[in-house]
Design brief:
alpha/beta; Rossmann fold; elongated; single chain
Length: about 375
Amino acid sequence: MTTIDIDALLDAPESRVIVCCGSGGVGKTTTAAALALRAAERGRQTVVLTIDPARRLAQALGLRELGNHPKQVKVEGFEPKGELWAMMLDMRRTFDDMVRVHAGPERAEQLLQNPFYQTISTSFSGTQEYMAMEKLGQLAASGDWDLIIVDTPPSRSALDFLDAPTRLSSALDGRMIRLLTGPAKAGGWGLRKVVNAGFSMFAKAVSTIIGGQLLTDASAFMQAFDSMFGGFRERARKTAELLRSSGTSFLVVAAPEPDALREASYFVERLSSESMPLAGLIANRTHPVLAKLSGSEARTAADSLQGAPLAEAVLRLHADRVDLAAREERLLARFTRAHPEVALARVPALAGDVHDLEGLRAIGVKLAG
């Protein structure tokens, strides 16, 4: 089993982007922040992009809040050789910024004020995943940072993240949506033109489902969106190229639990099939044994104690810990047998949640082994 050399990955000048991916609830956001802090401590100009809206991350970084643009983190208690910046993805604002860049002032204003756009910019399937990658593209294009670390959305499936640019682009270019452009493209005759053109059944059905006004809004949206659709596709293409470039590395984060490791296996297989560079698996919140005493020996000793309740409780707690560690080792061994080529790093669980930079720094030390 190969161990991930985290410091070598962070230090390499050719490392430009590190993407942390995995299912929800495995500590992915905290891992990304800890990696970013360690990279800055070791001399990189680093920015971490997170999608986690929890204020605890901002507090751990010493910030009152995180916004949609990078904010420098003031590190106290130790002096990093580089700089640490952080931001939290605002899906709607990122979509708005993309519209302003690609549509031009007049068209952009039409799109931003359109009720149909205001709906899809926050609720369309794949929007969050795509906007995370859109923001990554913006950060990379700026050239302001040596290293960008991305905390990806907690997708239930690897497909949600890796296919987001294609899926969102296809959805907005789909047959149903394109039919909605008929009224606007036909010279502004609106729904009456569609009806007269022989689409009465379609128009009636859509009007019944989403309402006549929303149908009109959708038509106007697609007419304005046409002007920027080429730019939208081009951004998706560049994002895909960036993810496959030699300067990008993927780290799959998982807890030593069956469901999380099954999800991790799917990520590993999908990254391999897409020829995306996988640096390895981070097994987060493991429970290594802290003493050589076996579980059975600890229980036997606990059973023999008389009048020492505290010692007995400690021994039984140790026995339970041995059992948990053995279970986690079996699960990780099963994963490595299925994916022998994947390097592994273990991060022991901390006693509590991370609340400050020192906590993130401690995780960084554990990541580096």
